[in-house]
Amino acid sequence: MAPKKVDTLEAKIRQDQLADLRTGLFVSMPISAILSGLIWAVHALSGSGFAAAIWFLVVNAINAARLALARYQLKETGRHDGLVGILPRLRWFGILALLAGFAWSFLAVLTVGYTTPQAPLHLVILAGISAGAVTYGSSYAAAATNFITPPLLITVGCLLAKGNFEDYILAFTVLLFMGGLVRASFVGQARFREASRLRHEAERLAAEMKASSRQDHLTALLNRRGLEHAIGRFETADSPNARSYRRR
After folding, report:
1. Quick check: 33 and 105 in contact, CB under 8 A?
2. Distance CA 63, CA 212 (A)
3. Any bridge partners for residue 222, and if so which?
4. Computed from CA positions of residues 130, 131, 135, 141, in that sequence, does the dihedral angle turn out positive or negative?
């Protein structure tokens, strides 16, 4: 395949990744807002709501930025950028996902290194939102892995710091969980890109076959089928020339 065609195909695949990330954010961001609100409520009931409120505002400010980026991409759907134009737009999703991941890492601060009575609830919510990030962002692995890596690694560090055998086992379990999610992200991205590639190549092949069926292979001029198609389009066109032609 010619380099130009390869770049065009890659650009279309990246556009599909952008569209899938945008769609996933409109589902995952409301879920994130609900879960972060639940954490805030738990801390408010336990008397430590101020720090949780600040954390809640930061998390949802980043979520708002991610939704704003998704809405911007929605407006840009009609653009046909080349590969160079698309990549920076795609990377912004990964950057904001990383910021969100660092924000969720502060769960370790809210729970004093996962030592408070509410720590198990935080771990369950963190596990759920990490799995959701992979589910709704699997078309672009960087977005999912950037989000889940900081909070899960910090969780592992906090658990190891406790020095108990049970916490060692739990830390190892979190590592296995993170490894599985990272692998799932890259497998999901590979499958998404392959499906996108096959779809676009099928569309290109169908267009080429349709065009070649209307041309003479030796002269590259329209054959009978091509002429009939061109005349049909001319007769149905809503233009002054076509209306004049039909009146004759």
Report:
1. no
2. 49
3. 215
4. positive
Q: Given a cut of 90, is residue 234 above it in pLDDT?
A: no
Instruction: Please compute the mean of the pLDDT values over residues 211-234 and round it to a whole number.
Output: 59
Residue 82 backbone class (left: φ over 0; alpha: ψ -120 to 50; beta: rest): beta
Q: CA 31, 177, 69: angle at the middle one, nearest 5?
A: 35
What are the pLDDT digits (tens) for 14-51? 989 988 998 899 999 999 999 999 999 999 988 878 99
* Among the listed residues 229, 171, 193, the one whose alpha carbon sits nearest the alpha carbon of residue 10: 193
CA distance 24 to 31: 11
Looking at residue 196, what is its pLDDT?
A: 93
Chain centroid to CA 200: how far?
A: 19
Closest among 36, 35, 34, 66 to 53, alpha carbons compared: 36
- Structure tokens belonging to residue 19: 């569209």
pTM score: 0.79
Residue 39 CB partners (closer than 8 Å, separation 6+): 52, 55, 56, 107, 110, 121, 122, 125
For residue 214, what are the CA distances in angstroms to 37, 55, 64, 220, 235? Answer: 61, 63, 51, 9, 18
Q: Quick: pLDDT tens for 45-89.
A: 888 789 999 999 999 999 999 999 888 876 665 555 566 777 888
Cβ atoms 112, 96 nearer than 8 A: no
- One-letter identity of residue 75: K
Torsion of CA 147, 119, 132, 68, to 10 degrees: -60
Q: What percent of the chain has pLDDT over 70?
A: 77
Separation CA 38–CA 33 (nearest Å): 9
